[in-house]
Amino acid sequence: MKKLILMAVAMMFVALPAANAQKVNTESELAKLSKVDAACADAKKGSKASTWIARGKAYTDAFIAPTKELGRGVPEQQLVLAGLRPDAAYEGAFMGYPAIVYEFEYVDVYVVNGLIEGWNQKKSIKEDLAQTAIDSYRKAYELDPKQEAKVAEGLSVLANKLVEQGDALNAIERVLDSAAAFELAYEAMSVVPMQQANGDYLYNAGIQYTIFASTVSDPAEAAKYFAKGEEILSKAIATGYADTDGTIYYYLFHCYYGQKCIDKERALAKGKEALLTGIQLFPKNVTILDGLMQFYTAEEGVGDPAELIDMIEASLAEDPSNYDLWFGRGRVFNALKQYDECINSFKKCAELRPEEFDANYYVAYFIIEKANAAIDELNANSANMGYEEYDARNQEINLVYAESLPWLEKAYAINPEDMGAIEYLKIITFRLRDMDGMMDKYNTYKAIYDAHVQ
Q1: Where does a domain end: 104, 123, 150?
Q2: In which element (H, E) is residue 108 found?
Q3: 3-state SS of the chain: helix, strand, coil percent to 5?
Q4: Residue 419 placed within a domain
Q5: Distance between CA 152 and CA 164 in Å, rounded?
């Protein structure tokens, strides 16, 4: 990365005494942890809730210390006011935006347009600080439930910081670490009855595991993370949580489906159950419906795609301009071999987005599929008919093929580099070469095709 020379920044930090170069005093923090650990190990002191509360606070403070002065949207001058000097500064990027990166011992801080927008904590003062803090507060509550308010207060501080860390880690795509932070935040808020654990924490953790699993190339390895996502999302639902539109069921479906290599029968059955439950509870959720359409059309035996038609029509009645629904409707009718309804669906897509390549291309594609199916049927019955009848029916089918050309030509005009459109134009015009002007078109598209493949 390019080293940064900014006089204003340099002046700010040079003005600070060297003793304040790093605010985290690692030795001091470790000494505090050793002291509270010893107190809890003492038979007399360890029997008191206050001792464990002190340990919870000490471990929370140690967890927070490296990022204590940080917050998204905070002016970078906060670093100066807190007495922090970076070890280095350079030009970098944060979420696609140019950023100044300040390096400290424990954390790299990303500044965009003068504001702290994120950070990357590179190490901790000690392992498992947050978990130890939670366990300490839990022990305090077990020893003396009357200390619930103090325990809840300490855990709230920890949970808020864990959520902040989860957001920061997600922003820099440390997905698994982000998931773990949200999961711990939920655990922290679940220790004492007076606290209301936020289901959003489980939802965020479950989504993160699901997203990470989808990036793992090895199916068996990915299945492990999908199983973790299933565990977390199922727990969220079991506790009564539901996001505003029910998309949790869509992610849960992917968690089941992603374990297909381990137990296909369970994966398909539970995946279907998740989607159907989701669409029953949230009938307007297009994402779940789209998942159902893909699932039913991709996997044999999970259900009849015809079951989806009523759901699709009901959703379209509510939202007739929904491109994705019309696209999905076309896929379902194609699976049912009802080509006219399939084609009409994609024509609606082209009406909604006339300059979109896919919409125009798929109208042509399914017109060709309809004609191909008619040719297959004609050839299967050709032994029972004479030449004239066969030829007449063949000419009728050619008229169907011809219907695809305007759509293919529109798709080609939108994206002249797409080989699928070019190849179909070459094939269809050759088939129709006896029609007026088709041979000239064939020669044109063949030359274009040949130029692309050379």
Answers
A1: 150
A2: strand 107-112
A3: 70, 5, 25
A4: yes
A5: 18
